[in-house]
Specification:
Number of helices of chain A: 18
CATH superfamily of the largest domain in chain B: Glutaredoxin
CATH class of the largest domain in chain A: Alpha Beta
Distance between the termini of chain A: 38 Å
Strand order of the largest sheet of chain A: 6-5-11-8-9
Number of helices of chain B: 8
Largest sheet of chain B: 4 strands, mixed
Number of strands of chain B: 4
Helix content of chain A: 40-55%
Strand content of chain B: 5-15%
Oligomer: heterodimer
Number of domains of chain B: 2
Number of domains of chain A: 3
Strand order of the largest sheet of chain B: 2-1-3-4
Order of helices and strands of chain B: HHHHHEHHEEEH
Structural class of chain A: alpha/beta
CATH architecture of the largest domain in chain A: 3-Layer(aba) Sandwich
CATH class of the largest domain in chain B: Alpha Beta
CATH superfamily of the largest domain in chain A: NADH-ubiquinone oxidoreductase 51kDa subunit
Strand content of chain A: 5-15%
């Protein structure tokens, strides 16, 4: 449902079915709603059978990269020689994204159940759920749900541990998250080795996003064919996806639609469009790390992995940020650059220096001191920040800058030419 | 150096991990295969008990986990939520990243500063009751502007609602 709003007829409600229903948070309420049946079913199956089933469903990672989940699980050693670990990425920090928060707030047992099933599939005895430090409410709810489930012995031999982050966007990067659990600074690691070979504590590890795991029990119960059938466009994108819509829309919130759903319908019909008297200017469809779309591109985008790429962006985490014609794109892109500069772990020169200088140049343009050459300088910087670092934080900073200059160049030029009143940047 | 910093150095050190809190640390340690992995949760416990994490606290944590104080400091300084200085009794974090920014988040910060008397973002109000800071994305963009007051997550804050919030926590 378009939580906190009433469900819309065009939504395909699977993961969000119980959003807003506090009774579903309790073990009793969850079991009453068919909860933990999928786990019981999975525990009777061989791990490899569970993996095959998830592979068949076409489920892909919902954290941003869209990697096929079953395939990822299959990379774990079949023959277990060392401890195996599962990490659950609940460090949701991508600007524009707030779906995992709602899953944990309303259906904590859905995540716990998916986690236990995944742990069984990859033969992990311990699963760490890494929840960002600022998520105080989801933390309390998850803690309570876990205690209840543990008391009832729901997970058998599988041990689930909650681990609290402490304010670092970069810990959403898989290897940074593992370092953070190990009690280290959240610096991403060079790959290879990949986590399936040497991840958490140097052991074979799989890491999955909250929304990915919450979908797993449904796939087990209703079958991979059902999940695969949830597809409106490209057969490589299956199932439902939660889209968090924020910014300049009448009804912000989470909406669950089938993969391939038109972005236009989501924004105009379900979210009620932009505020009255305004027109849509731009949209970031997959969290702040993906390229910005202009109005025309937004209106033709189909919401799946391939559809967003076809429009010149990416599906990412499904965090949709909407800008109407009142938005100052130069200022907002500066804010995004500042976000990345603040969150850079500072290991790689291109990122540490690149994000900081991008922000400074953006601030100079806003203050009316910019030069036309600054736009080329920004593009040159961005090029050196793309594909050259240990992780993609640096690329993520470049994406809105490059697409912003390409699509809203006139706004940059207005500041530089003195046609627009300078902004004093704090 | 603030008064609390000075007090830390002159008064006799009272360990954080004693009695019930030590038991809590032991239970944390049982969740991980290495002692070092208990670092983040141990630091959270220190901050809960003392309000912030002093150098002396870091040394205590280091001793408990078999790592060096310098290593602990390296970790503390990496994560923004650990306080390395005392903060106001009410610690207010206002999200001002783009999605909240276009919904008026900067006005919320301004209203908090005005209502509490804190001079600037990051500074503590003269009565010691308030520290207001701007933070990057709190992960609740659809409920702009989200504000974290201590451990309470408040959604949909507008500048008009700030006066009532300040009254509630004062």
């Amino acid at each position: 449902m378009g939580f906190p709003h009433k469900p819309h007829l065009k939504e395909t409600v699977v993961l969000s079915q119980h959003f807003g229903d506090a009774d579903a948070r309790t073990l009793k309420g969850w079991t009453k709603r068919g909860g933990y049946e999928a786990l019981a079913q999975a525990l009777k199956m061989q791990p490899v059978e569970v993996i095959e089933l998830v592979k068949e469903s076409g489920l892909r990672g919902r954290g941003g990269a869209g990697f096929p989940t079953g395939l990822k699980w299959s990379f774990m050693p079949k023959e277990k020689k060392k401890p195996h670990y599962l990490c659950v990425n609940a460090d949701e920090s991508e600007p524009g994204t707030f779906k995992d928060r709602e899953i944990m707030r309303w259906t904590p047992h859905a995540l716990l159940e998916g986690t236990a099933i995944a742990a069984h599939a990859i033969q992990a005895e311990v699963a760490y759920i890494y929840i960002r430090g600022e998520f105080t409410e989801p933390w309390t709810i998850m803690e309570k749900a876990l205690a209840e489930a543990n008391a009832a012995g729901v997970f058998g031999k599988i041990k689930i541990v909650l681990h609290r982050g402490a304010g670092a966007y970069i810990c959403g990067e898989e290897t940074a998250l593992m370092n953070s659990i190990e009690g280290k600074r959240g610096n991403p690691r060079i790959k290879p080795p990949f986590p399936a070979a040497a991840g958490l504590f140097g052991m074979p590890t799989t890491i999955n996003n909250v929304e990915t795991l919450a979908a797993v029990p449904h796939i087990l119960k209703r079958g991979p064919a059902w999940y695969k059938g949830l597809c409106l466009s490209n057969p490589k994108s299956t199932g439902t996806k939660l889209f968090s819509v924020c910014g300049h829309v009448q009804r912000p919130g989470n909406y669950e639609v089938t993969m391939g759903f038109p972005l236009k319908d989501l924004l105009y019909e379900m979210c009620g469009g932009v505020p009255a008297g305004r027109t849509l200017k731009a949209c970031i469809p997959g969290g702040s790390s993906v390229p910005i779309l202009n109005r025309e591109e937004t209106e033709r985008t189909l919401l799946d992995y391939e559809g967003c790429v076809a429009s010149g962006s990416m599906l990412g985490s499904g965090g949709i940020i909407v800008f109407d014609d009142s938005a100052d794109m130069v200022y907002q892109i500066m804010r995004l650059a500042r976000f990345y500069a603040h969150e850079s772990c500072a290991q790689c020169t291109q990122c540490r220096e690149g994000t900081a200088w991008t922000t400074k140049i953006m601030e100079r343009i806003l203050s009316g001191q910019g030069k036309m050459q600054d736009l080329d300088l920004l593009l040159d910087l961005s090029e050196n920040m793309t594909g050259k670092t240990i992780c993609v934080l640096s690329d993520s900073c470049a994406a809105p800058v490059v697409s912003g200059i390409k699509k809203f160049k006139n706004e940059f030029e207005d500041y530089i030419a003195g046609r627009r009143k300078p902004v004093m940047v704090a | 150096m603030s008064a609390s910093h000075a007090a830390e150095q002159t008064e006799e050190y009272r360990p954080v991990f004693a009695g019930k809190v030590l038991e809590e640390l032991q239970s944390i340690l049982s969740r991980y295969p290495t002692k070092q992995a208990a670092l983040l949760p141990a630091l959270w416990v220190v901050q809960r008990e003392r309000g912030w994490i002093s150098d002396r606290n870091m040394t205590e944590v280091a001793e408990a986990l078999g790592i060096t104080p310098a290593y602990v400091k390296g970790v503390v300084t990496f994560y923004t939520m650990y306080h390395q200085h005392p903060v106001g009794r009410n610690f207010v974090q206002v999200c001002t990243t783009s999605p909240c920014n276009i919904c008026g988040a900067e006005g919320v910060v301004k209203a908090f500063l005005e209502q509490t008397g804190a001079k600037d973002a990051g500074a503590t109000s003269p009565d010691g009751k308030w520290t207001i800071i701007e933070v990057e994305c709190l992960g609740a963009c659809g409920f702009a502007t989200p504000v974290l007051i201590n451990d309470d997550f408040v959604e949909n804050v507008t500048p008009e609602k700030v006066a009532d919030l300040v009254k509630k926590y004062r």
